[in-house]
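Design request, tokens follow.
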């Protein structure tokens, strides 16, 4: 076999890292392309290799056609959402709207119950603590000082001890 014939048979292989860098994507994104069949890859032992010509074909398929970018970037405006709701109602899909509304109410109720339970636990923890009601924290100015509300004679407050 001549040198010219062997060059025709040679395949220009690329590693996963090379292809990811070439495409400007992460390895994870590259693996998604491979997994969904968008990009052909070959498993050789413990290594994944890609043919350069397959990568070029993949790139051709990713080209954005004229007018397609506007649809990709188009944001849903509130009027678009209102139109969708109107369409759903007119087509008789009120069941799906009601179901979504009920799911939202259920989630809000579950969140409310979770918050109430947390507040009950806080109240329980506070009632279990042995708090000294004789001292009050004054947070009216930038520095909080502990002041004696009705400190027994002879006792010093924390603020007096720090002075």
């Amino acid at each position: 076999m001549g040198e010219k014939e062997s060059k025709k048979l040679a395949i220009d292989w690329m590693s996963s890292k090379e292809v990811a860098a070439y495409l400007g994507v992460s390895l994870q994104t590259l693996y998604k392309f491979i997994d969904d069949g968008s990009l052909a890859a070959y498993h050789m032992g413990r290594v994944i290799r890609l043919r350069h010509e397959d990568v070029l074909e993949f790139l051709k398929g990713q080209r954005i056609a004229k007018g397609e970018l506007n649809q990709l970037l188009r944001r849903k405006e509130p009027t678009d959402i209102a139109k969708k709701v109107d369409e759903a109602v007119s087509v008789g899909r009120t069941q799906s709207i009601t179901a979504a509304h009920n799911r939202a109410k259920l989630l809000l109720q579950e969140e409310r119950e979770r918050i109430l339970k947390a507040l009950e636990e806080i109240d329980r923890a506070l009632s279990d603590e042995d708090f000294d009601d004789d001292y009050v924290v004054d947070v009216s100015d930038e520095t909080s000082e502990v002041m004696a509300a009705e400190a027994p004679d002879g006792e010093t407050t924390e603020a007096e001890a720090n002075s």
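Comment from the thread starter after seeing the answer: thanks! The chain is about 55% helix and 10% strand.
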